[in-house]
Design a protein that fits this description.
The complex is a heterodimer of chains A (about 900) and B (about 325). Chain A has about 900 residues and is an alpha+beta fold. Chain A has 4 domains: about 280 residues, no CATH class; about 150 residues, no CATH class; about 170 residues, no CATH class; about 170 residues, Immunoglobulin-like (Sandwich). Chain A has 11 helices and 47 strands. In chain A, the strands form 10 sheets. In chain A, strands 18, 20, 21, 22, 23, 24, 25, 26, 27, 30 and 31 form an 11-stranded mixed beta sheet that branches. In chain A, α6 crosses α7 and α6 crosses α9. Chain A is elongated, with a radius of gyration of 40 Å. The termini of chain A are far apart. The relative contact order of chain A is 0.10. Chain B has about 325 residues and is mainly beta. Chain B has a single domain, classed as YVTN repeat-like/Quinoprotein amine dehydrogenase (Methylamine Dehydrogenase, Chain H). Helices cover about 5% and strands about 45% of the residues of chain B. Chain B has 1 helix and 29 strands. Chain B has a 5-stranded antiparallel beta sheet with strand order 1-2-29-28-27, with no helix packed on it. The N and C termini of chain B lie far apart (about 45 Å). The chains are: A alpha+beta (about 900), B mainly beta (about 325).
Chain lengths: ~900, ~325
């Protein structure tokens, strides 16, 4: 079909354009109603994101040309009228019905009248001229910031008329060309279409980031069609008129078959004018309560249009986040291992922002703030798998990452996939990826062998772990369910709970019995715990990134509730124009307790703050978004990022490092000591266990042997040396019962006398210290270990005489009064070659009392020896004949 | 960028020779006449297989940032960040083959890297906003439908399909439900595009050309009998099955019914589904099963010869033969009945 492009619309042909001059407010439409109307409208926009497959534009939202989101003038829509002069009927799919038949004019008048239309009902023939579409677009409120020129309105169509509408030439390149200046509005591929720059946002925020239905702030768009029509008689068409069937596309390829020769054009007087009075209709019901757009044509204002529409115009402005938060290397936030941000100073995290879209409803669920943070994967725990039935498809042990509940938020949980971790260490870790396979395999195996027990979890916390990890399902979905259940106090939200319970009910192991109790505790906790708040999500999922080697808390969305979000409208001076504009000022507060800190990672970790590039200067949001995206692909530890959005992904990021100090009760090194009596085969395991290995609610305590005084250290750990020489250590369980910690028997009359060491007998000592930080590395967080054995007198007082200890060092056997293993000063990679374990054989040549002392140092931030912990206990070495006498006594 | 040729990779020649000579197939014949052939390739052995694809004997195995291609004539090609546009610091999220051209996508925790395309020795990269029509660059799934249309499932917002043209074009479809939920799988059933996510399923009736908002149906829990929809395949005539935590949810056009352990389904959660005649291959975190209704079948595990219990990816090579990626290696499983 040849479509002759009409002359450029002559705007000066006596048709004054548009414009509403009144200050308008955008249409307030009930959610759902505006979308119901939109689909009925016969004026529709293409924006730059239309689908190029030939479908009609289906969106009622206007977005900016891709790649030009920072340019308000790039928010272009091409408006197309699906309305034709009477009696032509067009559908919303750009089809022409057979209410009329169209013939191609082959006569001498074809230039001005390329088509002749026959009314099928009456049999009359018509020609048209000056078919014009007058467009009006709602102007933004004067209080809004002027972004660029636009919404001017105008006229499309022209002197020469075609009933067809060219859609097949629609392509995205046009939009790009208009933005770049390579094309203008006048270059539109079909002159019936009108190009408008929607330079002001009409966006009150929509539900989540959903599409526009639900918005309450939409831009009004109206169109009035005017035209002139003349009846023509004496025509003899040839061939079939178009369409040949009930309806067919109004964008046919090639020429239409039917033709007619119109030798002479009708006289001017024969043309009947169809002005606004004839072509407009009342405001539709759906828009009646709020429609206030008008248009001026030929000096007269009209409030009714040929057709109406409302569109959502995407707001691309970013909230401006306060500068003092943009400090990824700063010292804004502090925390303590195992606690939360603000534990010491009570500071929550607050982000202030300014939003230039004053229409944004404060209650809009589109206004969001999300935060996430990253940390080392050494926060690794294990529990027996209660579902394990011996089948090869199951693992007997569950490995998971875990941040413990603090009574208000948490816990945060995620499964540990060894294969993901292996990808990181094999392919990306700067040290391990270069190590031999055997060494790497040992390192990986030791990670899981040395990871922390999870006995200290509350029963309901264990229940949560079982639920999240059940059958290796999608952990994030499980956590989302738990949050829904928490908010609604409704365990029916947990979709696999019944299956989990059914599976446990068939098992009789001790682990399964405990798991059943844990699940019951979880149910009770979800249903009726008075802890914390039900208005906010409590739990979060921990994921692991195989390329950065970091655990990350899945984005936590802050709830739009008064305790977390405040906002108000204020006036400020637009620096560009000097005008007063209305903006929204607000703030988001993240409760410090939401930022649960790991127990096993801090600023003295060898991975701390490994890779943090400088933040770009200034506050350009796009650069900040790119900066934080790059940073998060290889995040430094304890990077926290928070996004503040107004709607539809216009989120401004901010971030900070959280300095986690290793100053908790449990922060000093732990020491495990095994003493194997190589004669009687007894192995004594001496040491104070970590809190993680104690059942929930247990407390460590010690009784002074001489005075009988008892010191209860509570549930948090022991912040002093382990004096097992003058104190007896024990655990007080939650039910009040007491469990003594093992020690070497010393009473030759006691029940364990046969296990007491004897002189001249070989004993093997293995001392394994480890710290809460870096405990899953080869050096186990310890940079120095010192061991000595001092002879005591009969009253167990020090004599100053130390045993010579023979031990291996650098392939040689040396003897010294003190064994020292020293890794201070080694860098973080060299420390992977350092083993703080001390092992030696010793023979006590004289009976008597001895005091065994070991001192272990964790790593300070600068790599030197940090916090020390000393453990000492007394050994009573009996005379050589004791064993023989004991046997005789039996 | 051209792919590595065998001439430029002398080590690979030696490797292939070794493979021919030393290639160990650990075959295990199992009750259902299934034979498992473990792939003993150094790049795949013991490694997490992130994606697999197969077409006419061309097999693609993807570790987290490398591709291993095996051709019908037994050649092997390997692509990584050094000889292709693949990103070192990102995971391969999906792979697909259509008419001999290979499609790959990669993401990491914060970025998406668009679409990588390898055809006739040439690599191309397609990304938003450089290539109009691509919804965004975080793509998690690739699905080649029976009409040879390549679909890309984005983590959020919707899907993109490739339009065969010169140059290649893309068209996207946005789904409201996916603005707040994360995609798990996509599957085209004739003209119905099914999308499984962490919160139910979405069906897009692509044959209806009017506004997409009106031709999209969404089912969430409890009407859809699970939360997460991990995988989708055809079930019977005009019915589909969706893999969930506790079974296969079957949609008969009106409502959902759940097939569970009592129906013989052992491979749970059903993360991967492939229809193969009357059977459905089900890949789970706990093994592989070739399941058929009203028939008992065993769960294949490491004890059966699978390199790992956690199935990470699957592809049908031909009827009765499926490529299986696990967390610790790759295998080909053949039904010999």
């Amino acid at each position: 079909m040849d479509f002759k492009i009409a002359k450029k619309p002559a705007l000066a042909m006596g048709l004054l354009l548009y414009l509403s001059t009144a200050q308008l407010t955008a249409v307030e439409v009930e959610p759902g109603k505006e979308s119901g109307y939109f689909y009925k409208s016969k004026i529709k926009p293409f924006d730059s994101e239309f689908m190029g497959g030939g479908l009609l534009s289906d969106g009622m939202d206007i977005r900016r040309v891709s790649g030009h989101h920072d340019k308000p003038e790039a928010q272009i829509a091409v408006w197309m009228p699906l309305v034709e002069p009477e009696p032509i009927v067009k559908t919303q799919n750009n089809e022409i019905t057979d209410a009329t038949l169209i013939y191609r004019n082959t006569g001498p008048t074809k230039d001005k009248f390329p088509y002749v239309i026959k009314d099928k009902g009456t049999g009359k023939f018509y020609v048209y001229r000056n078919v014009k579409y007058h467009w009006a677009f709602e102007k933004p409120d004067e209080k809004k910031k002027v972004l660029a020129e636009g919404n001017k309105g105008g006229t499309s169509g022209g002197e020469v008329y075609s009933p067809f509408l060219n859609l097949k030439d629609a392509n995205g390149q046009y939009f790009e060309d208009v933005v770049n200046g390579a094309a203008t509005e006048a270059d539109i591929w079909d002159k019936k279409m009108f190009v408008n720059r929607h330079t002001a946002p009409f966006d009150s925020g929509i539900a989540g980031a959903k599409m526009v239905s639900g918005s309450t702030m939409l831009q009004q768009v109206g169109m009035i069609m005017t035209y002139e029509r003349a009846e023509v008689t004496g025509l003899s068409p040839s061939g079939a008129g178009y369409p040949a069937k009930e309806k067919d596309t109004a964008d046919p390829a090639g020429e239409i078959p039917g033709t007619v020769n119109m030798a002479a054009a009708p006289a001017d007087a024969d043309f009947v004018k169809f002005g606004p009075e004839k072509t407009t209709k009342p405001v539709p019901e759906a828009l009646k309560n709020s429609w206030n757009l008008s248009i001026n044509i030929d000096g007269k204002d009209y409030k009714e249009f040929t057709d109406y529409n409302v569109v959502y115009v995407e707001d691309y402005s970013y909230p401006e986040v306060s500068q003092d938060f943009l400090d990824p290397k700063g010292t804004v936030y502090q925390g303590v291992v195992g606690k939360y941000v603000g534990y010491s100073d009570g500071k929550d995290m607050k982000v202030s922002y300014e939003n230039e879209n004053a229409d944004l409803l404060p209650t809009s669920p589109a206004i969001e703030s999300n935060f996430d943070y990253f940390f080392s994967p050494d926060e690794l725990y294990h529990m027996a798998n209660p579902f394990y039935d011996g089948s090869p498809s199951q693992q007997p042990v569950l490995f998971f990452y875990f941040l413990k509940s603090n009574g208000a938020y948490g816990p945060y949980v995620g499964v540990c996939n060894p294969s993901f971790e292996k990808d990181y260490y094999v392919d990306h870790h700067p040290y391990w990826k270069n190590q031999p396979k055997e060494k790497l395999d040992k390192f990986m195996a030791d990670r899981y062998a040395n990871c922390w027990e999870a006995k200290f979890l509350q029963p309901w916390e264990k229940g949560m772990v079982y639920y999240v990890l059940y059958q290796n399902g999608d952990g994030e979905t499980r956590v989302n369910e738990l949050n829904e259940a928490w908010k609604k106090s409704d365990i029916s939200q947990l979709s696999v709970l019944n299956d989990l319970v059914d599976e446990l009910s068939g098992k009789t192991t001790e682990e399964a019995a405990e798991a059943k109790q844990s699940i019951e505790a979880l149910k009770t906790f979800i249903s009726s715990s008075p802890e914390g708040t039900r208005q906010a999500t409590r739990f979060a999922h921990i994921g692991f990134s195989a390329h950065s080697g970091r655990c990350g808390i899945s984005k936590i969305s802050l709830e739009n509730i008064p305790s977390q979000h405040t906002e108000e409208k204020v006036m400020k001076t637009d620096p560009a124009t000097g005008q007063q504009i209305e903006v929204k000022k607000g703030s988001w507060t993240v409760a410090g307790k939401r930022f649960i800190l790991p127990r096993h990672f801090a600023t003295n970790s060898i991975e701390w703050n490994d890779h943090c590039t400088d933040c770009p200067p200034g506050k350009k949001t796009k650069e900040m978004v790119n900066y934080y995206n790059d940073l998060k692909s290889m995040p430094p530890d304890c990077l926290m990022t928070q996004e503040v959005s107004n709607c539809c992904g216009n989120a401004a990021p901010a971030g900070s490092l959280v300095k986690v100090e290793d100053v908790a009760e449990f922060s000093k090194p732990l020491i495990g000591c095994e003493i194997e009596d190589q004669v009687n085969g007894t192995t004594h395991k001496i040491g104070v266990p970590p809190i993680e290995s104690l059942d929930a609610g247990s407390q460590l305590a010690a009784r002074d042997v001489k005075t009988g005084a008892i010191k209860n250290y509570g549930e948090e750990g022991v912040n002093e040396d382990f004096d097992m020489a003058s104190k007896d250590w024990f655990i007080i369980k939650a039910d009040g019962t007491r469990e003594d910690l093992p020690k070497i028997p010393t009473d030759p009359e006691g029940p364990e006398k046969n296990k007491i060491p004897v002189e001249d007998q070989r004993m093997k000592f293995v001392i394994k210290p480890y710290d809460n930080i870096d405990s899953l590395t080869p050096f186990r967080g310890i940079v120095k270990t010192e061991v000595e054995i001092e002879a005591l007198d009969a009253n167990q007082n020090p004599t100053g005489n130390f045993e010579q200890i023979e031990y291996e060092q650098d392939g040689q056997i040396i003897a010294n009064a003190k064994v020292v293993k020293d890794g201070t000063g080694k860098n973080k990679f060299e420390l992977n070659e350092f083993d703080p374990t001390v092992q030696f054989y010793h023979i006590f040549r004289a009976a008597g009392w001895y005091q065994f002392k070991v001192k272990a140092y964790d790593r300070a931030k600068d790599g030197s020896a940090g916090q020390p912990r000393e453990m000492k206990f007394n050994i009573n070495v009996l005379p050589a004949g004791f064993n023989t006498r004991s046997l005789d006594e039996r | 960028m051209a792919g590595a040729s065998l001439k430029e990779w002398p080590d690979m020649k030696i490797l292939i020779k070794c493979l021919f000579v030393l290639l160990l197939f650990c075959s295990a014949t199992f009750g259902q006449n299934l034979v498992i052939e473990k792939i003993e390739h150094p790049l795949l052995n013991g490694r997490r297989i992130c994606a697999v694809a197969s077409e006419n004997g061309l097999n693609v195995w993807a570790t987290h940032n490398e591709l291993v291609l095996t051709t019908p004539d037994k050649r092997i090609e390997v692509f990584d960040h050094k000889n292709s546009p693949l990103i070192e610091a990102a995971d391969i999220s999906a792979a697909g083959i259509c008419d001999g051209a290979i499609w790959v996508t990669q993401v990491n925790s914060s970025n998406g890297y668009g679409i990588f395309h390898y055809d006739n020795g040439i690599w191309n990269v397609y990304k938003d906003p450089d290539n109009e029509g691509i919804l965004n660059n975080r793509i998690l799934r690739i699905h080649v439908d029976q009409d040879k249309t390549v679909w890309f499932g984005h983590e959020v917002h919707g899907v993109t399909k490739m339009v065969e043209s010169i140059p290649i074009k893309f068209i996207n479809e946005k789904f409201m439900h996916l603005f707040d939920n994360r995609l798990h799988c996509i599957f085209m059933q004739l003209t119905h595009l099914w999308v499984g996510c962490n919160n139910g399923v979405v069906r897009f009736r692509s044959e209806i050309s009017s506004n997409y908002y009106l031709n999209v149906d969404t089912w969430v829990y409890p009407e859809f009998p699970a939360r997460a929809a991990y995988s989708i395949c055809e079930y019977g005539s005009e019915t589909i099955a969706v893999g969930t935590d506790t079974g296969l949810a079957v949609f008969d056009g009106k409502k959902w019914n759940m097939l569970k352990k009592k129906d013989g389904i052992k491979a749970l959660p059903a993360l991967h589904l492939i229809k193969d005649g009357k059977n459905i291959w089900i890949g789970s975190s706990n093994g592989l099963q070739r399941w058929q209704a009203d028939s008992s079948s065993e769960l294949l595990t490491t004890e059966s010869g699978l390199p790992g219990n956690r199935v990470t990816s699957m592809a049908l090579q031909e009827p009765g033969i499926v490529l299986v990626g696990t967390e610790t290696g790759a295998a080909i499983v053949k039904a010999t009945e």
